[in-house]
Specification:
- The chain has 373 residues and is an alpha/beta fold.
- It has two domains: 215 residues, Alpha-Beta Complex (Quinone Oxidoreductase, Chain A, domain 1), CATH 3.90.180; 136 residues, NAD(P)-binding Rossmann-like Domain (Rossmann fold), CATH 3.40.50.720.
- The protein has 14 helices and 15 strands.
- Helix 6 packs across helix 7.
- The longest helix has 11 residues.
- The structure holds nicotinamide-adenine-dinucleotide and zinc ion (ZN) (2 copies).
- The site of one zinc ion has 5 residues, from loops.
Length: 373
Amino acid sequence: MENLVSNEVSILTDAPSAINSLLVNNATMKALVYHGPGKKAWEGKPKPLIQETTDAIVKILKTTICGTDLHIMKGDLPEVTAGRILGHEGVGIIEEVGSSVSNFKKGDHVIISCITSCGKCEYCKKGMYSHCEKGGWILGYMIDGTQAEYVRIPYADNSLYPIPEGSDEEALVMLSDILPTGFECGVLNGQVKPGDTIAIVGAGPVGMAALLTAQFYTPAEIIVIDQDDNRLEVAKTFGATHTINSSTNNAIEKIMALTNGKGVDTAIEAVGVPATFELCEAIIAAGGHIANIGVHGKSVTLHLETLWSRNISITTRLVDTVTTPMLLKTVQSKKIQPKKLITHRFKLDQMIEAYDTFGNAAKEKALKVILEK
Ligand SMILES: NC(=O)c1ccc[n+]([C@@H]2O[C@H](COP(=O)([O-])OP(=O)(O)OC[C@H]3O[C@@H](n4cnc5c(N)ncnc54)[C@H](O)[C@@H]3O)[C@@H](O)[C@H]2O)c1
Ligand SMILES: [Zn+2]
Ligand SMILES: [Zn+2]
């Protein structure tokens, strides 16, 4: 991915708004604040307060940075307003709960889901938490997020998951977003089956999560495509049977050669740029499934002139995180070991450095970065 961080300008605290907020809330904390495309700062913000009886305030113990945060920094999600605290992943300890929260109490250790869900609306009842009428993906997007010392979690009963005692909390940060995302949007929507040949385009943390969880279904071949040789090497150690660097090879020709000219049964797009979605369109076998995961900021050409007769399906999905409890069991039993995705560790107040590292992943050999209290 192109260097997203080099042209950034750090700007100082937005003093007037901070002072306004201090009138109602004296306690402050530090947080990563978005100030428009390419601009961010680690700065003082009011500590969040309970606003609704269903809220919890969580003290962040560990958080991380997602490819989606890089998309926000790039300006791909212009609906994110300046002043927003980013971040939608993390584990923490409950500081305070609203009066109607019944599943959690002060002191509980929790996984924060990237998706906020009321558990009661029509979409929640269908298991489509991502489209919850009162929540969905709002954290670090429409409301302040987890790259901070404290975060307010609405609908805490349904949006937090208890951490079993004695767990490796670092590994569980991967359950906030990347594992359910790779699994639900990539593997489940892509209908991966035993004996299939699948391609995963994008070997970032999300593509790697698809790689780890695809193996629940024993596909015969897993081809991973990226432009970063380091990430491709890591993919091999995680179970990729073939890797292709698409910046130095013709990925379409290579994949067709590997599949006797047929293409792949499932193509999982885990980048979010037109070229990688179009690659999926070019390599899909008849009857195959293109499962898009990437957040796209630009329109993509749909080649119906070649695909109309190919019996394929194309799916899109915002992660619902409905599989989080199941995935937690697979992590606890070490069936999958997402902790291996962590390459760099920082203290929370080294957030800007962590963004630089994750934003220059190829140079820094970075995959998932952990920031801890
Ligand atoms: N649908 C959802 O609910 C959901 C949830 C989380 C993340 N996402 C999205 O998933 C995508 C992946 O997230 P991530 O955290 O792994 O991001 P990332 O930026 O770490 O990884 C993207 C990978 O794509 C590779 N890449 C870039 N351009 C490429 C190209 N032209 N050809 C091949 N490879 C290329 C990069 O080298 C990198 O390894 C992002 O778009 C993110 O926004 C979607
Ligand atoms: Zn994310
Ligand atoms: Zn709901």
